[in-house]
Fold each of these.
Amino acid sequence: MTSAGLLQIASLTKTFQQPQGEMRVLDHIDLQVEPGEFVTIIGPSGCGKSTLLKIIAGLDTGYSGTVLLGRKKIERPSIKQGVIFQEHRLFPWMTVEQNIAADLSLKDPDVRKRVAQLIETVRLQGFEKAYPRELSGGMAQRVAIARALLRKPDILLLDEPFAALDAFTRQHLQEVLLDIWRENGTTMMLVTHELDEAVYLANRVVIMSPRPGRISRIIPVDLPYPRARASASFQAIRQTVMREFEHKGEW
Amino acid sequence: MDQTTVIAAGGTASDKDHVPAEAKGKGQGRTMERTAFAEKVLHNARGWILPIVVLAVWQWVGQAGLVSPTLLPTPVAIGESFVELTLSGELLGHLQVSTTRAALGFLAGGGAGLLLGLLVGFWRKAEAALDPSLQMLRTIPHLAVAPLFILWFGFGELSKVLLIAKGAFFPLYIQTFLGIRSVDAKLIEVARVLEFSRTKMITKLIIPAALPHILLGVRLSLGISWLGLVVAELMGSSEGVGYMIVDARQFSLTSIVFVGILIFAVVGKVTDSLVRYLETKLLKWRDSYKG
Ligand SMILES: Nc1ncnc2c1ncn2[C@@H]1O[C@H](COP(=O)(O)OP(=O)(O)OP(=O)(O)O)[C@@H](O)[C@H]1O
Ligand SMILES: [Mg+2]
């Protein structure tokens, strides 16, 4: 970790004012993410994973400590930090291609071309003119990913993006995401509840402990892609991650 | 919806082989189409049964001499009046005057409602300054101000148009305001993340999100404009469908009264259907319950 790092988080602490008084949600978080890395974050419900991602996204600026993206303080949301939420959050009045273009004009041949490419990337050919209501959850989430990718973000922040999907669709989207990561080299930071998903995707799994949220351990996953979930080495790492939770006694 | 859900869940990697559900429906063969058509005719026919029965009974009651024609002329007599008035050009003349009044009132009142709704919706300072007063004015009954308007502006066109405008103002004002303020905060977050400019925020997010409300406002405003027109014309005028009714009543030409009422009903319905048509065109992205 001697290089500059794309994302540098140092003693990040976040407290919320709540009726019962102050509540410390994140406590001295230190984390560096290298360009091109795939980091997954896993931890019990309420440990502050979404809060952490919101801060990196620039949607929450009331914290202490430093959060730098490319050495610059994050002060507001920007297209440099792509965000994928648990719900697809597409604009219901726009078709698939309009949603991907969003504020950009499809009349611009450059935009048109990029949109068409991305529709191919997320495997939605034939659905360019469909409205969100005509899409399944998995398809809609792929549109959301394409919409973020069109902006060529330095980092893509994904907050439990596949949690609402069934197991088949989830695995399919994991492959789509890995393909995108390999092809574009976009740095990925993904929050999940799924042990399997965390280990399957990541270069490093960040494990958080609850109340106040701290990083309890970071486990590197040095397995080549594509990974076999059934392999002994995969299962061994999965066990390590699982034991970390058992130590904490809370899941 | 079900169809697409199944596609994504089952055929993990091959969605491109499937066509959207809509396109699929079209190729289902002619038998389907024919039964669908027959069903539609049947569905519409069901709505006609009651009116036809009522008309038949009504005609019979009149012909049998059970009620006096000055109280309740028969449907056939009303039809004859209608043809007569149409051929003489009288009806068209009155209708033109009436629709012009209603349109002017609607445009003035509805337009002002839309503009102020946008202003108050987008700008909190305008809300603080204007909304309380406007809400207060809203509670004044529409019809109660009619005598006052006549007192101030006389029996001429101005008082009529203003009365209609007052009615048309509030639905559009309230719905526009409401539409802008009920934009989903989650979508606003998305727009911030995607760095929408202020203009794009308005044109690509807020206006489309508010459009269902605004169109509802247009429909309600049109309805009230028409109502205001009837009141204005019945209270005193020298032309228009309302005048035709009042005039006919003085001479006990009840069938003409009926023609006037029918015209009011039909034109009201037609304008409403027009807006509904506009809704289906502009809001085709919506996924709503269709019964
Ligand atoms: N806007 C807020 N105001 C007050 N408290 C908040 C706010 N947002 C989150 N919290 C609190 O902060 C804590 C962490 O929330 P956060 O949503 O980050 O958890 P999480 O790890 O994402 O949980 P989950 O896995 O259930 O999504 C929770 O206890 C929550 O109640
Ligand atoms: Mg969360």
Note: The CA atoms of residues 27 and 33 of chain B lie 10 Å apart.
Amino acid sequence: MKRAQRPIAFTLNGKRVSLRVHPMTRLLDVLREECGLTGTKEGCGEGECGACTVLVDGQAVNSCLVPVAQVAGAKVVTIEGLKGRHPLQRAFAEHGGAQCGICTPGMIMAAAALGPRPTLGQVRTGLAGNICRCTGYEGIYRAIKKAESRSKKPEARRQETAPTIAPSKARTPNPESRIPKAGTQRAR
Amino acid sequence: MSRAVGRNVVRKDGAAKASGRARYVDDLTRPGLLYARTIRSSIPCGEITRLRLAFDASGFTVVDARDIPGRNVVSLITDDQPCLADRQIRHMAEPILLLAHEDRERLLGAAVEVDYLPATPVLDAERSDRVFKHVAITKGDVDEGFRRADRVIEGEYRTGHQEHLYIEPNGMLAVPENGGVTVWGSLQCPYYVHRALAVLLGLPDDKVRVVQAETGGGFGGKEEYPSMIAGHACLLALKSGRPVKLVYDRVEDMLATTKRHPAIVRHRTGVARDGRLTAMDIDVLMDGGAYCTLSPVVLSRGCLHATGPYRCDHVRVGGRVVMTNTPPNGAFRGFGAPQTLFAIDVHMDRIAEALGMDPARLRELNALRPGDTTATGQVLGRDAAALDVLRAAVARGDYRRKRRAYRGTNRGIGLSLFFHGAGFTGSGEVKLQSKASLELTATGVRVLVASTEIGQGQRTAHAQIVADALGLPYDAVEVAVADTSQVPDSGPTVASRTTMVVGGLLKQGAAEMRTMLGHLTPAAYLRAHGPLVVTKQYEPPPGLVWDDETYRGSAYGSYGWACDVIEVERDPVTEEIRPIRVTTAQEIGKAIFPLGARGQIEGGTAQGLGYALTEEVVMRGGAMANAQLTNYIVPTTLDTPPMDVVLVEKPYAHGPYGAKGVGEMPFDGVAPAVVNAIRSLGIDLRQIPATPERVMAAPRIRDSRLRQAADRPASARQAGFGIRKR
Ligand code: FES
Ligand code: FES
């Protein structure tokens, strides 16, 4: 028994896509299975690990918690949308930001959403919803710091093809799914 | 003249991981793919009396124990664990039945009814009479040692289960191919899986092919359990004749797969008035869970590290690992050593307290030095660096001053001194007979090993070693995918052995290849002489002798040495303990890839902080009751403090470029340093994790005893200052 499918259109990494899917399908599954973009990972499926982080209208969200219907008309950017050319990507690769790499795409998307030159405090708060079990986060902080200094160089600034990642006036698909990437430290 | 070793080259796997191109098992697919699901027991102990498929089975592939063509075991040490429970159930979430279907919704909707005849489970290790393994280590005469003691200090220390929580859950993709089967999976040990599949499926070795997909973390959790999952995926693939993907979700991964062994360690220690240890009597009990898996070796390593890095002439260590009706416990970073090192180093602080001594001084007095013998009679070489790391961490962490300054405040500071034997225990490396190959290519060389990249930097470190030994640029070295049809058996990727042991074989092979090449470039050599592959097999270094029966001899080829100084802050209302700062000095022989070594230390430390403080596996009725990331709390960015890492290098004569192991040691010392920091707050805690509930319930230490332990009391005014912001 197939679930009822509906048409949906949104912008994915700068390109318009139209699909027929059940509106409650997780954005994560649509990206990975319908769109073939497997860079976005599933670590928990319950909004806790951040491995599935993508940008929706410039804001970092956990795509495992977002029903695809809620990105209708929105701009979605995944790790593939950074085309390997974002300063954060090189910095993560070269400065110990990635070990096993499974958290890396989500980590980079969450870091990208922080905007230019975040303080360490902003980084720690902004990445609090992204778990890395390998690095102890220190390598990630170092990589983000390196990326800043690199992005100031003119050669790295010429990134016309890379999509804008600055937080825009956020249009939130659903208040619930707008996972507070900041301050998600769990009660204990 | 070394060009790659010791330099922060660009990780071989860095760009693929940062771009999202790296392919993990769940990213793979095949035409005609079936999804799979495991039906598991819902009781911890008993018998299956009836099983009924309560769904429309059209389009389903269903596998039970009767479908197994070979032997129904997950072949490892004792072959006691069935791949699918036949009748007997020995733990919760034990696999009973396998389902596959092309439509995931139908698969998830399929209901299977199982009736049981339950039996009374054994859930308490102390009540279990089924012993998987005993270990006994004796040195000198422990009674004589106690006669020489001025004081005898006793204590019992407890550690809990721990979940690996690699961010990528376990998974396998099995494809029927060439009259056999190929699996791609998230795994650490391709040849463990290979052997288990050959036994389970009754196939000859050349009909089974195991390929590592990019693996999103292992930490030991993908050492033995992947053999089970691969078996399940293959049974379904062979029965259906179609590709089958079996990927666990987080809850299933936490419920069903292995955990760190809980332990109870009892110490009785004789000390002379001046602080010298005269006798150590240690009793270790570990909970193995329902099947043997790797428990004997975990116990063995635990017992071999039970004295800590301390000298003592009279030692007795007795250990046992027992069966309980809980999911089997297995390999986890440190492999038994973290449990016993926790016990000894909290015990050391209690000894210091009893004697009114500075804990750092007590350790300095007793630390193993070059020329000393361990509990098994191993004579330590010049690279025994306990004193070096102790002094480095104590000075850099400003331990003594802060210990005084923090008195009477909610800040505490604690110390731990520890060591970790690299490579397989005892004669393990000899039995493994690991091989590593190098194949000349037109542009350089290809590394052929079964070692797996699980984030630790294996591809990078191996390429660095080969590049320098062969005199080629780092970029001219490729590292092949760990595919059993292409690479020799280099042994498992465990036990901090990948750089030291397998890297050592590669260095030898590269040196030999360099001689064969002479002045020729790789391309010129291939034109003149045709293909060239050099293979090296492990030979123990001279003088490395071990007796499995008596537990005498050289337990490990080399030891790394480390010291942690950890500062914590206690919330006076909630009793929550937060780590504030970590200073760690770690001696690892030689850092081949310094950035990677640092990453291992920082990551291992963070994982250790979770073990020490928050990672509580709540076992209820034999199952993990909090099998969700929501309520199993691992450290986030906000829970992980700044870390100051000092690398100390004292080359190991038989390691490549002097390298020892680094993967596990950083984990070992975190929990005791944290608990000792809590102790410095006057809280007598002897069990981890140090949750607020436990801290609240722990007895308070009489103030006079603590005061004795600090050289002089400090005014409260000093407290809280002198903490450098990162
Ligand atoms: S998969 Fe973990 S938050 Fe989405
Ligand atoms: S690099 Fe492995 S989880 Fe972050």
Note: Residues A 98-104, 132-135; B 167, 217, 455 surround FE2/S2 (inorganic) cluster (ligand 2) (CB under 6 Å).
Amino acid sequence: MKILDKWLMEHKYKIQDVKLMMNMIRESFLAKLGLTIITMFILTAIFAPFIATQDPLMQDLTNRFQPPSLEHPFGTDHLGRDIFSRVVYGSRISLMMGITVTLILFTIGTTLGLIAGFFGGAVDEIIMRITDIIMAFPSLILAIAVAAALGPSLLNTMIAIAIVGWPRYARLARANCMQVKNELYIEAARAIGVSNLRLIFSHIFPMIISPLIVQATINLGGVILLAAGLGFLGLGAQPPTPEWGLMVSEGRRFISRQWWISGFPGLAILLVALGFNLLGDALRDILDVRMRR
Amino acid sequence: MLDEDILVVKDLKKYYPIRGGLLLRIVGYVKAVDGVSFNVKYRETFGIVGESGCGKTTLARTILRLIEPTGGEIYFEGENILSYKGEKLKDFRRKAQIVFQNPYMALHPRKIVRDIVSEPLKIHTDLSKEDIYDRVLEMLEKVGLSEEHMFRYPHEFSGGQRQRIVIARALILNPKLLVLDEPTAALDVSVQAKILNLLKSLQKEFKTTYLLISHNLSIIDYMCDRIAVMYLGKFFEIASKRDLFKRQLHPYTKALISAIPLPEPDSGRRERRIILRGEVPSPINPPSGCYFSTRCPYAQPLCREEEPRLEEVDEGHFVACHYWRELEDLG
Amino acid sequence: MEKLLDVRDLRTYFYTYRGVVKALNGVYLTIKDGEVVGLVGETGSGKSVTARSIMRLIDPPGRIVGGNVFFEGRDLLKLSDREMTKIRGRKISMIFQEPIIALNPVLTIRTQIIETIMANRDVSVNEAEEIALELLEAVGLPNPKMIMKRYPFELSGGMAQRVFIAMAISANPRLLIADEPTSSLDVTIQAQILDLLNRLMEEGRISSMLYITHDLGVAAELCHRIAVMYGGRVIEFASTEEIFKEPLHPYTRSLLKAIPRLGYYDELYTIPGRVPDLVNPPSGCMFHPRCPYMKDVCKKEIPEYVEIDNSHYVACHFAGVKDVR
Ligand SMILES: Nc1ncnc2c1ncn2[C@@H]1O[C@H](COP(=O)(O)OP(=O)(O)OP(=O)(O)O)[C@@H](O)[C@H]1O
Ligand SMILES: Nc1ncnc2c1ncn2[C@@H]1O[C@H](COP(=O)(O)OP(=O)(O)OP(=O)(O)O)[C@@H](O)[C@H]1O
Ligand SMILES: [Mg+2]
Ligand SMILES: [Mg+2]
């Protein structure tokens, strides 16, 4: 009983936050929509083997170009593969890639940003100039260049997106860090002998995490979009991987008559990107409210 | 002599550069602390009184090496702390603690009280989790809080309670020196009384040396053994409390003491009050000679030319005024 | 002497998301012509809200929900907004704690002071300018001509407060309300301002004043009578002499014992507990949870605000019963 009480006390605000989040999501249509899309997306990815009607790689040349039907809800492609199953399995690739890359981006960007903001001086100059250079290019173009240089593969796509994406996190983290590091409670922590490392990660980081999470959520959609873009250009996943961008690209030739080959994976990309954006916006509102408390 | 002193400060200076122009070149300096020397004895309470902007907080920060001084020396228990680095500096932080002016800003808003108060223990000791918990609870009880407060966030507390949390964190490692930078300036009278009482009783229990900074002479008088009067980054007078209230040698000290409004009607102080002319000059370009010469009712030509040195004129009584003797004869 | 201001049972509430903040719970206060009344109390006791309610400067979510504010015999709460605007600045004016914030940052002192004078008096710009210079001189500002050209941020706190006082007295108001005008200033500067206010009283430029402060020392020096506030009520109101020598309310007594005084080194008296939450105030007497003399009746009944001795008002069930203490 006592332990439970303590736990409840300690996590009172986290519980309140969750409640607040639920309430806000319940009140906003767009947030509900975003949450629904993302939940479905994630469930699909997890339970792909149970949802797919057949092996996504299985070819059936006798059944090419089937339009959507009960047997093949999204139709079949030029090799007679079931598009529904391919889209379902594709969600795994997109989700895996989105999360991994975002985690990498988040970690690298935030760490560099915190270091730059905290120490300032030459370190700050160097890190910020690098972000300037990277951000001077449109991200897709730069990603194409990097992916082309590294050679096409799923892993290289992730590396390319990571290289392009971290500066945004770094700048956000740096700006907030510079503000927080001058607060009295940070000086107070220094006065009790807290080391710089601990100061950065245990004192400053918790104060700047909220906008970064919003950024990451919105960015997840962007990462998936970018990965699909590279796939589409043939610089990402290689056939026969059921990657959405690649699938759109493969169906491109038949778009005028067999629209479903590109259409359904395209729709999936769109929905997921939209879903993350809506969710990110909702999250921003929620965190704003929490800040004001 | 030296070994009765826990802290010796010699000619300490802290100038903040002012940048201006397109290239942000240094165009001048704020001389926030400008050649301050004093010593603090073990277990005493040394008070520094001065008006806002005279450099009290800067002095406190410099002594604790939260900012680096521009010049001077600081000895803590006989060692020059300005040479400290790494482990030595960390060890110094264990022995010298600070309570800040504003309890509303000094606590991390996203940490619960347990984590705030236990942090010094986590950094400086290798006690087990249970031991840390017990120590934190014990300390919180000493400052008048209880177990139920441990899991709350700072914004759930009043100013006085927050200051108690700050004090608990500062004293949990039993430091030898505690710097108190206007610990009650942000608090109400009745809350102030509680904090002052608490600080007094904790000092008795832990045998801590206090360096108390305030602009409120009544508080300084209530708490301190010796007092330094600060003005524009300099000390004008240092004396034991008894000496200072009996016999002020510096005209600024006189004016300061006479300016305190006393909660006694018809004390007749209003008539005897020394009203100073003008305002405190800017520390960016202080007046020539004695910094007080622009407001001093007794200023002479010499005062505008030559800066008086702080000299010991009686045992333990220091003053920086060319004419303290004449003024004393004047009464 | 005649009552210039007579506040009766004034109630002001703030309707916030946390609930209704009952900031004023029946304030009684009188100011006679030519008198300085001090309003003292701790943070949140309702001093500023009282001042703002008298001036009818309460903005939503706040609302004056009851009571009367008689000024020169008329109830200010019943006046139209237009009539009230004429009272503000001309008959009653106000000075604040943060003079630099209260001044408009983008206008010069000249513009602001002349505007104020012309709003309240029937004069030309040139006449207003002359009055302004004379007033700035009167509040002890050296070189008024130069001050007029400056912007508020170019003034120190003490100078800005002098400018503000000059503006406040420009229309020769009957009543000046000063809300902690020296709390953000240094002791020696505070001494200057208090000295100035005293001088202006002697010169007749200020006739009556309501002086809000949390510093009992300042109140003791400046005021003829002192009202002590607690939890949105005036709980004791008497001459300065009596408040300090013979306080009747337990809160006043505790407060007086809690301030450090020069030459006094015993443990300070402390008041147990905390200030009341004005959303869920304690039943009966607001002070009862902290009162050393608390009896059953204190928990149940709100003590009335009554005259005990000659002009000594107290809101305490046992104020008349001397031997309770
Ligand atoms: N980081 C800084 N950069 C530049 N100037 C500073 C800085 N900190 C303080 N100053 C200046 O140094 C002077 C002394 O400031 P300090 O905060 O030490 O005064 P203080 O005596 O503590 O005042 P208060 O009573 O208002 O707390 C002031 O003129 C202030 O403006
Ligand atoms: N705009 C507002 N909205 C909600 N509550 C308010 C508002 N203004 C004042 N209050 C509440 O009214 C009460 C009285 O406030 P008031 O400002 O009069 O206190 P005070 O005695 O002037 O204190 P201080 O010494 O801090 O100036 C407080 O509890 C305050 O929280
Ligand atoms: Mg300070
Ligand atoms: Mg107020």
Note: The domain at 71-292 of chain A is CATH 1.10.3720.10 (MetI-like fold).
